[in-house]
Write a structure and sequence with these properties.
By secondary structure, the chain is α/β, with parallel strands linked by helices. The chain has helices spanning 13-24, 32-39, 44-49, 51-70, 81-91, 95-99, 104-111, 139-155, 168-180, and strands at 2-6, 28-29, 75-78, 116-121, 161-163. It has a single domain (2-180), classed as 3-Layer(aba) Sandwich (Rossmann fold), CATH 3.40.50. Helices cover 55% and strands 11% of the residues. It has a five-stranded parallel beta sheet with strand order 2-3-1-4-5, covered by helices on one side. Helix 8 (139-155) links the parallel strand 4 and strand 5. Helix 4 (51-70) packs antiparallel against helix 5 (81-91).
């Protein structure tokens, strides 16, 4: 089983990913963007000021997501390639390169399999929290990323389960209800 939490930054994906990893005893792939950011000792401000650095960074995030997912048959992932493409569209010039990647089509096909679950976590002003690593919270920016992710999910006809409630208890109950259908 492959479980993905997609959505804009600060919407609660990491919290839900950790819950699923613990509850279902499944490996968690942490957000690869954070991994690369830390390894490269980069700051978000640098990425927003230097397009070449941003291009290289986002390509590394794309490649890392593919690599991390290839290591496990079952996992929960804090993000997916869909998110990475949305951020690439918003902040880089490499979206055409990533869209032409030979790995993309098989990846999308895997997202459409019955054992893949994509939870699209909608942003909410009530739950929007800075994570201390990524960029500061800008509601318009969050909404723009959210819209891009939804566009890509719809464009590729990927089945997803939308989480739009503010209450964490309700979010967890919804996730458990969806995942119980698989067992």
């Amino acid at each position: 089983m492959k479980i993905y939490f997609s959505g804009a930054h600060g919407s609660g994906k990491s919290t839900l990913s950790r819950y699923v990893a613990n509850r279902y005893n499944i490996f968690m792939i942490s957000e690869t963007a954070r991994m690369v950011l830390s390894e490269q000792e980069l700051q978000i401000d640098t990425l927003r000021e230097d397009l070449e650095i941003a291009n290289n960074y986002q390509k590394q995030v794309f490649d890392r997501q593919l690599l991390e997912e290839s290591k496990y048959s079952d996992f929960v992932s804090d993000r997916s390639i869909i998110d990475i493409l949305a951020y690439s569209a918003q902040h880089t010039q490499i979206l055409p390169e990533l869209m032409a990647s030979p790995e993309l089509r098989p990846y999308l096909d895997n997202l459409k399999k019955s054992d893949s679950f994509i939870f699209f976590v909608k942003p909410s002003k009530a739950t929007l929290k800075p994570d201390g690593v990524r960029e500061s919270i800008n509601w318009d920016g969050v909404v723009a990323i959210d819209a891009q992710i939804k566009l890509l999910l719809k464009m590729w006809e990927i089945r997803y389960f939308q989480i739009n409630m503010d209450n964490m208890q309700e979010r967890i109950q919804f996730v458990d209800s969806v995942l119980s259908l698989h067992h």
